[in-house]
Design goal:
This is DUF6296 family protein. This protein is an all-beta fold. The protein is built from no helices and eight strands.
Length: 84
């Protein structure tokens, strides 16, 4: 399976604009077997399926995980981990 290198996670914010977080493909897989993506800080982590389903993952204690309103791939798909 091929997965995009980068996604935008769009969260509803209380202000005029939504919050957008860019996450990048990591070498890890989540509980569902899909790749885990994280932002540059490593704080925002998400397992994203091949159908665009998102499972947010805690990166530390006391996090309140919100689900994004929209998930949008930003880069072309690349070969899955360990395949050419």
């Amino acid at each position: 399976m091929d997965y995009p290198e980068t996604y935008e996670l769009i969260f509803q914010a209380g202000g005029a604009e939504d919050d957008v977080v860019v996450v990048h493909l990591t070498a890890r897989s989540g509980a569902g077997g899909y790749p885990v993506y994280e932002d540059e800080t490593g704080i925002v982590r998400a397992e994203i399926s091949d159908r665009g389903e998102v499972r947010m993952q805690a990166s530390g204690g006391h996090q309140v995980l919100g689900a994004p309103l929209l998930v949008r791939p930003l880069t072309p798909r690349t070969p899955a981990h360990g395949t050419d």
